[in-house]
Design a protein that fits this description.
The protein is α/β, with parallel strands linked by helices. The chain has ten helices and nine strands. The longest helix is centred in the C-terminal third of the chain and has 23 residues.
């Protein structure tokens, strides 16, 4: 789907097969996603998209929550294509009956056609499957999510609908001061308050770990060198596992008391070493507090 033209992806399929998960994944892949659009509004919606330069990859999630609307979906798609407005791509999500039953029982929800809770769960699923058969037969792609983890489903979507076959992995290394609060978005937090503190050296106190004198004081200490090598070994062992599990960005936070000396020095060296293998950004959350103006 690597085309300069605007792309319309219609996501539909069995209730409980993963449309909400797919919608979130498509947003991560750069799609503008609209959920639960009545099919009768598809033509008007696409006219708005065509008149805007802000959207190039668009996904519309359509399901059976409003049964009377759903029967219009094929007619609306055919009308769009007959008018030459767009070549729509239809993704149909499916899952086996036993998996759908288990998912509904887990969430304590009912499928749209379960007769307001008066009918059997399986009857509602099978009736929905019957109604959806024409659109399933018309679909360009069918993904059965019965045995797919959310990570596997996302990778399948990337392989099918993204120009990039894998999402890029990157690392953010952050220094911070515990007295100003821990960063809530960090994946790994390392406390370095046990290392020798330049704060108690009068000629170093005013500066930060960005200053070579402070950096050298921290990094040249024997206990720092032992600790840092073990930290680097740990991260180099763990990072491939994060990548394998589908992690796209890893935030490593290094903290000391004020986020001025030790954490900044360690973060600087860590970013330098990790950047030999991975894209790395570095943030010093507190440094601006200590820079003289």
């Amino acid at each position: 789907m690597a085309d300069d033209k605007k792309q319309l992806l219609i996501v539909t399929g069995m209730s409980g097969a993963g449309k909400t998960v797919v919608a979130h994944d498509l947003e991560d892949m750069g799609y503008f996603v609209v959920d639960n659009l009545p099919p009768t509004l598809l033509g008007s919606f696409w006219d708005l998209i065509n008149n805007s330069n802000d959207f190039h990859k668009v996904a519309v999630v359509i399901d059976l929550r409003v049964k009377t609307f759903y029967t219009d979906l094929l007619d609306e798609v055919n009308s769009l294509e007959d008018n030459g407005n767009v070549q729509a791509t239809i993704l149909f999500l499916d899952a086996s009956d036993d998996v759908l039953v288990a998912r509904y029982k887990e969430t304590r929800r009912l499928p749209p056609l379960a007769n307001n809770g008066k009918g059997r769960l399986l009857d509602g699923i099978q009736e929905e499957r019957r109604i959806l058969m024409p659109i399933k037969n018309r679909s360009n792609y069918i993904i059965n999510t019965s045995n797919l983890s959310t990570k596997d489903l996302k990778q399948k979507l990337i392989n099918t609908f993204s120009d990039r076959k894998r999402q890029p992995f990157s690392i953010e290394v952050m220094s911070f001061g515990f007295k100003y609060g821990m960063p809530i978005d960090a994946d790994i937090v390392m406390d370095v308050r046990f290392l020798p503190n330049p704060f108690y050296i009068p000629e170093l106190r005013p500066f930060t770990g960005l200053d070579k004198r402070v950096f050298d004081y921290v990094m040249n200490k024997e206990e720092t060198q032992v600790f840092y090598q073990k930290l680097l070994d740990l991260l180099e062992t763990a990072i491939p596992g994060y990548i394998k599990e589908g992690k796209e960005k890893l935030t490593i936070a290094i903290g000391c008391t004020g986020g001025q000396h030790r954490s900044v020095s360690i973060a600087q060296q860590l970013a330098r070493d990790l950047s030999k293998k991975y894209p790395v950004d570095i943030t010093h959350r507190e440094v601006s507090r200590y820079i003289r103006k």
